[in-house]
Request: fold
Amino acid sequence: MSTDRAGTTRKVFGSLAVIGTAAAVAGLGTFGTFTDSTTPVSAELTSGTVSIDLAQPAAPIPATTTGLLPGDTLSRTVTLTNDGNSPLSSVTLGVTTPTAGILTTDTVHGLQLSLTSCSLPWTQNGTTAPTYTCSGTTTPLSSGPAVGHHAIDGAASLTPGGADNLLLTLALPESADNRFQGQTSTLNLTFSGIQRAATTR
Reply:
């Protein structure tokens, strides 16, 4: 019994001795350190704003038309303005429909959309079935099947503060046959602007 106790005591003391030695070695590694740092230098960053606005200066959209026949057209004007403080890389008009049918799925004989810009605001003539004239310079921008994406190349609204006077014309081609009679379609038009390409500042 006494022998076991003595052995246990030696083991305990031996362990304490090792811990004590480790603590002594750790204590030898503690010393003072000289340091220095620079004066703070500040940099202020402000993010840009990408924003476009759509105004309807004349006959409004949405527009509802009935009795459309082959060769008929429907025109409306809008003013697209870059009211943010950042230039854009592109501006597009996206046209979608929740009621797909032959009027929009037939890309040849179905509804067609054209975009034309005027260097000055368009002048509206009449109210029931308005037509529009441009007293400045007209520029054709896009034409093709109504549903899809229509690029507005060279748009003035790419530049902050720039504005585009746009004439949107929907047409049912003269080639539309009897399959198109009595058909109805709703079109949703959305203009989208994308920021310019990222650069090193």
In short: The chain is about 15% helix and 30% strand. Residues 5-25 have pLDDT under 50 and may be disordered. The CA atoms of residues 77 and 167 lie 4 Å apart.
